[in-house]
Design brief:
Blueprint: H1 12-16, H2 24-38, H3 47-63, H4 66-80, E1 93-95, E2 101-104, H5 110-113, H6 124-132, E3 155-161, H7 163-168, E4 170-181, E5 197-198, E6 207-212, E7 215-220, E8 229-230, E9 243-254, E10 263-266, E11 282-288, E12 294-297, E13 300-307, H8 309-314, E14 316-321, E15 326-331, E16 340-343, E17 358-364, H9 372-387
Parallel strand pairs: 3-11, 13-17
Antiparallel strand pairs: 1-2, 2-3, 4-9, 5-8, 6-7, 10-11, 12-13, 14-15, 16-17
Helix pairs in contact: 2-3
Bound molecules: zinc ion (2 copies).
One zinc ion binds near residues 201, 202, 221, 224 and 228.
Length: about 400
Amino acid sequence: MAPQREWLEKDFYSELGVSSDATANEIRKAYRKLANELHPDKNPGDAAAEERFKRVSEANSVLSDPEKKKEYDETRAMFAGGRFRGGNGFPGGFNGGGGTTYTTGGDFNLDDLFGGGADAGGGLGDILGGMFGGGGGGRSTGRGTASRPRRGQDLEAETTLSFRDAAKGTTVSMRVTSPSPCTTCHGSGAKPGTSPRMCPRCNGSGFVSRNQGAFGFSEPCRDCQGTGSIIEDPCPDCGGNGVQVRARNINVRIPVGVEDGQRIRLAGQGEAGMRGAPSGDLFVTVHVTGDKLFTRSGNDLKVELPVSFSELVLGATVSVPTLDGSVGVKIPPNTADGRTLRVRGRGVPKRAGGSGDLLVTVKVAVPTSLDEKATEELKAYAEAEKASGYEPRAGWGR
Ligand code: ZN
Ligand code: ZN
């Protein structure tokens, strides 16, 4: 018998399109119909159909076997009871004010619920390995340590910043509506004035051992659903889970130089954990709008500077805006159109201190109309230029 850790993540009933109380006959009929439709012989080269066919076959192999079906149902009942799944009445997504949208974190990660992968002894695989005798060799008896509390889920949020705010850093205020520690019981889940008591069945460990044949198994305690404690007087405001869905205002400090698409992690600002367990993290994805003047390349700030032909030929000092005030940029005489001049340290601030550079690209602007005097002077200049022997197309076109 293989450990069926994946069972928790798979819904074989919905795979077959039947309800979880479907009869054996209904299951058989549903499977035959789907297997017939999805059979690879009928769908040559259709990878999606083949994948579906495999999943339907797997679902049927469990649900058509009374032994396996019973085990599957029990496993899911034990873990799917509100506490371990998303079915706590929390909304699947939610909206904050101010044009900021939020969604709850991606896949429900069962490892996280059981204390995370970093805890060598607390992973779900471990528990199920024990329950189902998988992983080679029987685990003997119960566990010495209390089960770790279940950390809240991570949250994802998004915010849009102006180019300049992103470059210079800012603080944005977000309103997040999510499962949060209950303000009445401060997350304990127990009615104020009472406190949770240690589960007598598992002595607070959250696990009980069960002997079956030659092996001893350890499994989550059913009395306390693996939490190790029992709440006799649940908090009236959260129903005993220590969590309330409510709106919170969070100030998010955006560091300098953040770029479009970056994610900022706010530790502990995600969904509250059950009964005072640690909260998940909040991840804020930053979108940065374009700027009329500037673009960026890492910490370098780029700007295109309109100049006249005479400024390029004679040289000039031109005032150029930066993120902080403006800077005088010296254009040397005989500067070619399109050349980029570098102004050190006037670009985007770096997190480690200092700033990138300002890159100024000169671009000649051609007058759309000139007054008579200027036109006359320009004609005179053209003559003089020719007389000087200057040939713009010298060496070109051959
Ligand atoms: Zn409460
Ligand atoms: Zn217990």
